[in-house]
């Protein structure tokens, strides 16, 4: 699954979605994460209610399942959710991308909360053409959900 982060420095999740000049995208699996690509945005990115600046960002995130933000407007959040991209508010502006990725991988391997299980299933189904009922990965995920005790606690914006 691909996860995006709004950032000003590729280290912290420290940008508002609408005014973000940069969005970094990572591929995340149960084995770990890797940087995939970064998107840069220019022009009038002020937090001014002008939603025209959102379209290029939403298009750039088309393959992502989740985007971490410091903040996001209601209209932008609704548009992302409409594209099956879940916006998540970062714990703080000092939250580091690598720390969140490490916790996320840990959660994937242990006890994902219901919203993450749903996102995993959507991501898995969209990346495969085979029947989800024939996939052994589903059984592995179910077992991991039942066996673990620690979860990723984030504020999902809906």
TrEMBL record:
Superkingdom, taxonomy of origin: Bacteria
GO biological process: nitrogen fixation
Keywords: Nitrogen fixation
Alphabetical list of InterPro entries matching this protein: Di-Nase_FeMo-co_biosynth (IPR003731), DiNase_FeMo-co_biosyn_sf (IPR036105), NifX (IPR013480), NifX-like (IPR034169), NifX/NifY_domain (IPR051840)
One Pfam family named in its UniProt record: Nitro_FeMo-Co
Keyword GTP-binding: no
SUPFAM superfamilies attached to this UniProt entry: Nitrogenase accessory factor-like
CDD domains: NifX
The UniProt record lists the keyword Amino-acid biosynthesis: no
Boundaries of every Dinitrogenase iron-molybdenum cofactor biosynthesis domain copy: 12-104
Molecular function terms from GO: metal cluster binding
Family assignment from sequence similarity: Belongs to the NifX/NifY family.
PANTHER family on file: IRON-MOLIBDENUM COFACTOR PROCESSING PROTEIN, IRON-MOLYBDENUM PROTEIN-RELATED-RELATED
Protein name: Nitrogen fixation protein NifX
Gene behind this protein: nifX
